[in-house]
Amino acid sequence: MMMRRADAEGYTPPALVAGLMALAGVPLFAHLPWWTVTAAALFTAWRYARDRYLARPPRFLLWLLVAAVTLLVYARFGTLIGERPGLSFLVMLLGLKCLEADSPRDAVVLVLLCYVALLGDVLFHPSLAMGLFALLFLTASFVALSLIAQRRGLSPRQRLRQSAVIMLQALPLAALGYIVFPRIAGGLWHSAPRPIGQTGLSPVLRPGSLSALLSSRAVAMRVIFRGARPARDQRYFRAYVLTATNGRVWRRGPPGPMGRTRGGPLVSYTVLLNPTGNRVLPALDWPLDVSPQDLLAPGGVVRARHAVRHLRRYRVTSGARRYGRLTAAVRSRDLALPASLDPRIRRLARRWRRTTSGPRALAHRALAYFVKHHFIYTLNPPTMGRRPVARFLFHVRAGYCEDYAAAFATLMRAAGVPARVVVGFFGGEFNPDGGDVIVRNYDAHAWDEIWVRGQWLRVDPTAAVAPGALRERWPAFRRFLVHGVAFQAPRSWWDRLHHRLGLWRDAATTAWDSWVVDYSGRRQAELLRRLGWRDAGPVALGLATVILALAAAFLVKTFGGRAPVTRDAARRVYERYCRRLARIGLAPSIGEGPCDFAARAQRSRPDLAAEIAAITGDYVACRYGGRREVLAALKARVARFRPRRRSRPGPGGPLPTSKRRRRERPTARP
């Protein structure tokens, strides 16, 4: 392309503006097509290179690029409306706007468009880290606006300090506005789909399906109990109830009767569930009361009406026991075993039934079998082959929770006791800083339930075989990776410090998720009721938002201008004198001193020369000569000084020289 001629009057946006564009576009790279951010980067590089190496694009080329960008987005998404198509279009238009930026106004528009791109970042990543990033981004944008408005005169430290002060002043009003601004349905940050997290739960249980999740420390959910918190060994959060098996895999079967929950202490709690992509809502023990928008399904499981694709908050009240009746069809379902089951399992179960009667006693015999034959809980179970249950019971005798759950349920069914497998989470870690229980992916667990006298009784064979295996899975897994041993010496001081810092971070994340990400209309009403505002309808909230906006505008108008200049009494009196002269057309020029201004005013108005000289002399003596006793005389002179404009001459009076000359000028002959 042709070399661009240097233009001394051209304006290039500060490099910090390009940095803001890069910061706003990088988080979107994972959610938008790669060519959107790349195109914006190329347009921006073209703008900063055209001052020295490239030519300025003509106007028609810019319009062609806009049309091409529009067609690309429409061809990719089929629309220009929505989170991803809208942000893709915005990012590329941001680069095109930078390409044509040639004035401070264009640079300000670029910064404002960066704010919209930042909002897209927050919509896709509504996390605490993104909130801190947004604060730093806004502070840097204030520095960029300062560079645009005043290119010289302030050091970088002064600009940064000024921007930080502006940010700190704006935060209280912004927080109040966020609290009272009317909420939309579902919360502001629920419009964009979230990255789907892997909770490790699946409606299909096979050997190795849960043990692979032990290395994941990602938070699956956070539980906030109202009242007494259950002990750790009582925190079983059920998600799936599996009743059908072919000997290798357990799946969900036909639904059974609902039953009823009664007896035992009732526990009420709130769950903050991270996105999963499915409808499962883990609940403690036997749910009794759920939110109106959720469903209580057979088996004591809670289901959402739609897939969980954003942070989900729900409330549950659970009991410790559930009673009901077992129909013939359900009993047959919960006793079914595959025809290919190893005969040794049936012989072992028949031997137990000869000497033992009752479901509880048979369950104790099965658990005693695990202990007597020295079964081992391992973090890395071996391959079980085509008959995993028989190989686990008679040969390997080492496995993970799903191996124990599948084997125990098979033994109970072979002994004539209805049994089923339950998959969910166990335990969780209490965070004293946040007051919640953190449940992570490595807390995924499988246990069993057997039918005993009209109710389902929970049995956890893993806890019976290895009581300490479920207490600290993640530290045990780390030691297993390093030393090959699952449970050994206690954690080092570094592990304890790292763990404590993690609890602080989780507490802050819980507060952020509760009051920012999940700040819906219901949460807003709860908060305002705590603050004493019980009837906060949409109209009242809108009015409060308008009042806050007007208050912010008033504060900016009053205190957001230039810093007040300290003036002494002599200066104030002299400014009053200058305003009176300005009314008759004699205003001081910028940088003009009092003596020079007085000389010019005397030449223009000789009739006021004496008063002008006296006032100027008193002012110079008082202000610059240090004679404060002259201040009273100066005030008196200015008070008496009432200059008037010169009166226009009457019909018979003399005309000004210019008009006289125009009248005396001879008229040209035709």
Concise synopsis of the structure shown:
The protein has 670 residues and is an alpha+beta fold. The chain is built from 22 helices and 20 strands.
Features:
5-stranded antiparallel beta sheet, 20 strands, alpha+beta, 670 residues, 22 helices, disordered N terminus
Helices and strands in order, then pairings?
Elements: H1 15-25, H2 34-49, H3 59-77, H4 83-99, H5 104-124, H6 128-149, H7 156-180, E1 219-226, E2 236-242, E3 244-245, E4 250-251, E5 260-261, E6 267-273, E7 280-281, E8 283-284, E9 286-290, E10 294-297, E11 301-304, E12 312-319, E13 322-323, H8 328-333, H9 343-355, H10 359-372, E14 376-377, H11 388-396, E15 398-399, H12 401-414, E16 419-426, E17 429-431, E18 436-440, E19 444-452, E20 455-459, H13 461-465, H14 473-483, H15 493-517, H16 521-530, H17 538-559, H18 569-583, H19 594-604, H20 609-623, H21 631-640, H22 657-664
Parallel strand pairs: 14-15
Antiparallel strand pairs: 1-6, 1-18, 2-8, 2-16, 3-4, 5-13, 6-12, 7-11, 9-12, 10-11, 16-19, 17-18, 19-20
Textual characterization of the structure:
By secondary structure, the chain is of the alpha+beta class. It is built from 22 helices and 20 strands. α9 crosses α12 (401-414). The two termini are 62 Å apart.
Strand order, main sheet: write it out. Answer: 9-12-6-1-18-17
Largest sheet: 6 strands, antiparallel
Class derived from helix and strand content = alpha+beta
Report the average pLDDT across residues. 80
N/C terminus separation: 62 Å
* DSSP strand count: 20
Radius of gyration: 40 Å
Task: Using the alpha-carbon principal axes, give the shape.
Answer: elongated
Indicate the proportion of strand residues.
5-15%
| Uncertain stretches of 5 or more adjacent residues | 1-9, 191-198, 479-489, 650-670
Helix content: 40-55%
Output the number of helix runs: 22
